[in-house]
Structures are given as structure tokens and as C-alpha cells.
Specification:
With 125 residues, the protein is mainly alpha-helical. Strands 1-2 form a two-stranded parallel sheet.
């Protein structure tokens, strides 16, 4: 009886091993990228002025929410200097120039700009 159980168990294990060889390989996270992930990777850790919400400016004192709202609504931009063409006060221009190295401009993406989520994207602390 013990031999029969051992043979049956070895048959089950062998069938399981053969089955894993026949099944397709699993998809890994690197293969499961979408348009938004690619666009976020393109900005290189900087705030993309054409594809971000107002909340991304919270890390820069003085910019959130007033100046950030003007920047977000004033786009799309071809370059960072296009922001200075907006109706900004001298203080706002000074703040933007202070943090200018933290910003970038890439072409707008529908994946990140769809709807009206750039002002209130629903992310709360």
C-alpha cells in the first residue's frame, strides 16, 4: 500500500512538472507598461508642466496653489520660458525662476490630461 501511494505521488509530481513546461511564461511587470507609465518615465523625475496636476507643485513653497493653477491652466508649453509669458506678478516670476531646474516640458499626453483632473486630481493627504 505504501508503494502504491509513493508511485501515485511521484506520478502527480511528474505530471505537475510536465504541465509547467507546457504553460506559457508569466508576464512580468516590465512587460506591463502603459502610455502613462512611459510618459512619467520620460520626465526624468522632474515636474512636467504639460502633464501634471496642481498637486505636484506642493513641494515648492509659494507655488501651490495659485501659481501652480496659473501654470497648469496656461499650457501647453513649447519650452520652460513660455511660462514667463503668462500674466504673472514679479514675485511669481521670481518663484518660477527659483525652481526652474525642477521642471521640464514634454508634449501633452491624453493619458495624463484627460478630463479636468489637472486642478483637482482627487489625491488628498
Amino acid at each position: 500500500m505504501k508503494r502504491l501511494a509513493a508511485w501515485l505521488m511521484s506520478g502527480v509530481v511528474l505530471a505537475g512538472l510536465l504541465l509547467t513546461l507546457l504553460l506559457p511564461a508569466p508576464a512580468f511587470a516590465a512587460d506591463l507598461r502603459n502610455v502613462a507609465d512611459d510618459k512619467i518615465a520620460e520626465r526624468g523625475g522632474k515636474v512636467d508642466l504639460n502633464n501634471c496636476s496642481v498637486r505636484r507643485f506642493q513641494d515648492y513653497p509659494g507655488m501651490y496653489p495659485t501659481l501652480a493653477g496659473k501654470i497648469v491652466l496656461g499650457g501647453p508649453y513649447e519650452s520652460l520660458d513660455d511660462v514667463l509669458k503668462l500674466d504673472l506678478t514679479d514675485r511669481q516670476k521670481e518663484l518660477f525662476n527659483k525652481y526652474k531646474d525642477n521642471f521640464t516640458v514634454t508634449p501633452p499626453s491624453i493619458a495624463l490630461n484627460e478630463g479636468f483632473d489637472r486642478i483637482n486630481d482627487g489625491q488628498y493627504r
